[in-house]
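lol so apparently i was supposed to do this last week
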Amino acid sequence: MKLDTIIHGGRVVTARKTVLADVGIRGEKIVAIGPRLAKTSADGAKLVSAQGRYVIPGGVDAHVHLALPFCGTVSADDYDSGTRAAACGGVTTLIDFAIPYGEETLQQAVDNWQGRAAGKACVDYSLHLAITNWERQKQDIKRMIDQGIPTFKEFMIYAAQGWQSDDAAIYGALETLRDLGGMLCVHAESSRVLDMLIERHHTPAEMKKHGAYLHTLTRPNFIEAEAIERAIRWTKATGGRLFVVHMSTGEGADLVKRAQEDGVHVLAETCAQYLALDDRVFAGKDGHLYATCPQIKKPQDQKRLWAGLKNGEVCSISTDTCTFTRAQKAMWNGDWTKIPMGMPGLETLLPVVYTQGVLKRRLTVNQFVDKCCTAPARVMGLYPRKGTLQIGSDADLAIVHPTQKRKVDWHQMQTNCDWSPYQGWNLAGFAEHTFCRGQQVVADYKFVGRNGHGQFIPRANPGQV
Ligand code: URP
Ligand code: ZN
Ligand code: ZN
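anyway here it is w/ N-(aminocarbonyl)-beta-alanine bound
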């Protein structure tokens, strides 16, 4: 068979096994995996050596915000810098959240987001939709699912943004999505108590004393746990499918585990920052830079989330990329309630999880591939087109050295951010080469892709494990 590209000599890693094999690419697809392809089928094919490397499926980051208008500004990574960052991090598919503003319909939100991506995306992308007004938007759900957008996010906070959903909206969405084969994603934080705690601490004296650390003092773990508990309650009552996004607490993992044992269809992701950082970051001079929502928690939460990944109750790892520069973060001016919330992450997802997970023996390399590639693809309805290395799948893959480390330095990165939560960290797991649908987008750690290569990937039947 004529091949365009052969990745040869590497250890091919999937969620299930690791094999020494060559990978043959024709057009946009993987068409062969086997020994000695480079010897038997090389005829005119481009040969890329993966000797001494792992060949893994391209990462699937199921939680990304690019050019998001939020907190009085717009997040700094757009479909250009964000997808270049993804490529250099070995991520070949990302899922962004289209959000209707004001009176906009779901369709208008999708059109807005497609407009942002058009001609710019360098790797593939897909969209979730945010439901910001259930009563007005519910009649459009089916049309969105028919367009390949079967996952919807409801926020249990963010009244000020006009994004908040109440319990009735969550219950209604779970029922409707159950009937239409969709899945509800929730941002689970308990807004009434959270707002009360914020108000209680929102004094000049407290802000002078604690600075950005108030972000963590006002969000004790029960803020997330109570909201997850409530969302699980509605999921059980409706028989719907729930996906807890950016889960940050050990209590959350306990609740999800218990609900799964109880037969409730609930799944959860966590994010790299909850696994690698803890809330001491808020106490430093640059503490405000790390403000994200939910905030980074404690070492015991990290420990429980790693265990949840290993055991299975935490099914996948994403980034919640929502980049704000130092100038944007400076809008806080000493008041933590004004910090634009979010951080860069796409470029460091795989290296952080690989280094903290595989090299520290918290995950096997196959579990790493599962949590960052296969499980998010499966849960979000992209599998087996994305998230695995098998014949017929899109030729999305990254070649990574198993031990060689590179120092994180935002100056050298594709993100528009001028700081990194991992600045100066030595991480293995960066993509030496990345392919997205057969096209090489990273060569020798350098971006070689092009704007417009990335395509919208429709999804169906989410919630599979
Ligand atoms: O701080 C964050 N995570 N910003 C993005 C919005 C969200 O809640 O996911
Ligand atoms: Zn959220
Ligand atoms: Zn988010």
